[in-house]
Amino acid sequence: MKNTLIVLPGPTGVGKTGFALELASRLRCDIISCDSRQFYREMKIGTAAPDDEQLARVRHHFVGFISVTDYYSVSLFERDAMALLPKLFEASPVVIMTGGSMLYMDAVCRGMDDIPDTDPAVRQRYAEMYQKEGISGLRMALRMVDPEYYAKVDLHNPRRILRALEITASTGIPYSSFLTAPVRERDFRIVKAGLTRERGELYRRIDARVDAMMNAGLEEEARSLLEYKGLNALNTVGYRELFRWFDGEISREEAISLIKRNTRRYARKQMTWWNRDNDINWFDASEEEMMFSWIERRLEDNRP
RNA sequence: GGGGAGAUACCAAAGUGGCCAACUGGGGCAGACUGUAAAUCUGUUGUCUGAUGACUUCGUAGGUUCGAAUCCUGCUCUCCCCA
User: Fold this and answer.
1) ipTM value for the complex
2) pTM, rounded to two decimals
3) Which residues 96-155 of A interface with strand B at a CB distance below 7 A?
């Protein structure tokens, strides 16, 4: 039987954790978490990371394995996950990957282009350029060094332009020439089953979960991370709103309702991303048994 | 009881005779996405239409005018001040 990676996407708050746990118990396999914020060991409550009891029941990977001060990225995740999978497949022909980080999931399923790391000094230089000259300065610079990418990039989005400039300057090669968008051949089968819910119900669950996080001590968790609020890892729903409260900018109530709103937005954004992935078979949370049996049938189906 | 201010689209808020289906912000909805992605960015938001365009809107009922969200009158409601 060919090794299979069961990919389980779903919007935040839909109930993936519990579902994946149940599935892993039945299949006796490990879970790879694909949640770029559950990676951080200091952010357990706000990211609804699996708790100790759940972690003890099924072996998880990539949960709380780095610190907010560490550098990590999609490509590192792809590398680490691809290094780990063969080991996991030695123990079981099936591995589950669940989570909400869309790009990270795609990186494992399809791979990303090999692009060299950027030089931090270069990065700093362009950050300053953005400060001084704004987005138009970045645009002009990009048009000079990589007109091909300039023609297709979102010229309103500083992140994209900065990235292209950094790579081009660090390597001396236009960023666009790295972009071949290959679909990497994986030596395991990928089965994608998405978990979804009616929107109103999902929103109610999200609201309830935010309240539960506050009761579970999210405030203390965020306070202990206040000194790191400038780090990217903390630019995350649930933390940045509380930081604004701590700074006296908004009230506690405002912070909580903003967390709810931003979590709902995130859930929608996730669905937008996955909507274009035709390989995902979606199941409503009310049809969990149907989903289990669909997955089991796919596993019995031995064709590559 | 007397005096004053105001009622604008989901919310807030501009507009004070034609350039107004109505600035702007928020929210909603939709979308993009190749390296810190729970990030970053975009579009749209009266109705019908593929688009031109058509139709109904600015508390309410009338009036003035070629033309009104904008001017006048009555009514309803809200707020403030003095009693």
Assistant:
1) 0.93
2) 0.93
3) 100-104, 112-115, 117-118, 154
